[in-house]
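Anyone up for a design puzzle?
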């Protein structure tokens, strides 16, 4: 019980097999109908729940429909429009600046390369990966959000700590065809069972291969701290 398999590759294969069976229909939970809406939604989702973002974008996407709309928006007004979003002041500034760059340098289109996306203000590699995967059908890497960061460490798949290093560490051991779905599977499992503060190890499909299982181990490998 609670024992990681002999190699990281074997651990990844077993984890993915079980999670694919547990969450057969998992996918991105942000609502969007085009690449621009996707980019805006992902920018808003940083350190904010997808549920909250979806609630705000219902009206936001009716008011702002084009890159030009965002590029010409008043930052203070946009900040008010997304007032319930975490760090709404900074995100409003990022969105207006990014829209101006897309208008002036990309013909009003959402870029389709990692370098061009991460050149946009407020867009990091995680956001760019999501936009590439779900907006352009380009999979260049693994989206490492808080759930992927937590579960990959808890499950003994990586010992890295930062999203960038975790992504680099995971890519050689996760089959490329699973890069996109790994994120969705880990998010689904992180929300349903392997939560940050009180994971339900007794009802977890991965418990017997998890070296952080509270049923068998004293330490949460995600945080390095002992279980309460």
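Challenge accepted. My sequence:
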């Amino acid at each position: 019980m609670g024992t990681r398999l002999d190699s990281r590759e074997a651990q990844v294969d077993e984890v993915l097999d079980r999670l694919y069976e547990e969450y057969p229909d998992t996918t991105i939970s942000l609502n969007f109908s085009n690449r621009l809406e996707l980019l805006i939604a992902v920018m808003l989702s940083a350190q904010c729940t997808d549920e909250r973002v979806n609630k705000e974008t219902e009206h936001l996407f009716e008011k702002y429909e084009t890159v030009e709309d965002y590029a010409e928006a008043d930052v203070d007004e946009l900040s008010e429009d997304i007032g319930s979003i975490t760090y709404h002041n900074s995100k409003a500034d990022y969105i207006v600046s990014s829209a101006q760059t897309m208008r002036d340098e990309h013909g009003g289109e959402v870029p389709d390369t990692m370098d061009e996306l991460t050149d946009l203000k407020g867009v990091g590699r995680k956001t760019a990966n999501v936009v590439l995967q779900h907006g352009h059908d380009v999979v260049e890497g693994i989206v490492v959000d808080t759930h992927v960061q937590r579960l990959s460490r808890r499950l003994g798949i990586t010992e890295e700590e930062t999203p960038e290093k975790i992504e680099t560490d995971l890519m050689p051991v996760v089959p490329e065809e699973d890069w996109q779905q790994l994120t969705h599977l880990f998010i689904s499992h992180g929300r349903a069972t392997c939560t940050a503060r009180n994971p339900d190890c007794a009802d977890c499909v991965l418990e017997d291969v998890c070296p952080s299982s509270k049923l068998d181990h004293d330490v949460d490998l995600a945080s390095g701290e002992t279980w309460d």
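A detail worth pointing out: The CA atoms of residues 16 and 68 lie 42 Å apart.
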